[in-house]
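From the shared-data thread, chain only:
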Amino acid sequence: MSERDKAQPEMTQDSRRSEQPAPADAPEAKEAPAAKGAADGKDGPDAKAAARARAAAAARARAAAQGGARNAAKAEEAPEEPSPMQPVLDHIVHVITRELGDGVIEEAYVNRLAKHVPTIVVKNERWRETARLLRDHPELAFDYLSTLVGIDHETHLEVYYHFDSFQKGHRLAVRVKADREKAVVPSVTDIWPGADWPEREAYDLVGIRFEGHPNLKRILLPDDWVGHPLRKDYQPLDEGV
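Structure, as tokens:
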């Protein structure tokens, strides 16, 4: 035996087995990738699956949010359905404009929040002639005044009227504005006698004077009461009241 052979250790069966690569289905081989991933600071299979699930959920949430934004934008862009009372309003405006000219109505719209009532804003100085036209014209025939109230809008005062036509079966709201410092609106008591007490009430509580009213005096408060309680800047003379 040569000197080289003498230097080599004797190869036993066990040592030869340890030098052979482990089979692929050996337990050590299955655990190696996870162990390597842990050693490298990476997630194992379960953690990766959870991460993928979280990413998918986030993507779905983003898509839903984007879809909601698109739907909202489409809803804003979609034209509003015309009111069933729009033809009635258009006809009323047409008749008033045809008979009295263009300088009568400041604004016309359908009040959707009040059961789609047709509404017009009439200039203060043209209110008397417009009121008579609303009652007497055969295409309008507003023969019943159901509501008359005074309103303080802080920048101005206003009288709100609501009319019905028993002949035509339609209705109309009218708004007439008045200056806060000189709150005067023409009276319509001679056109609709039912305006008598409501005009007195609006005068009493809001301070709107109805020019031409036959008996404009307080109706709820004493004649010597100071101020008008439904004005937003009202200050009681007696703080205890």
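The helical segments are 3-7, 13-19, 27-39, 45-77, 86-100, 127-136, 196-206.
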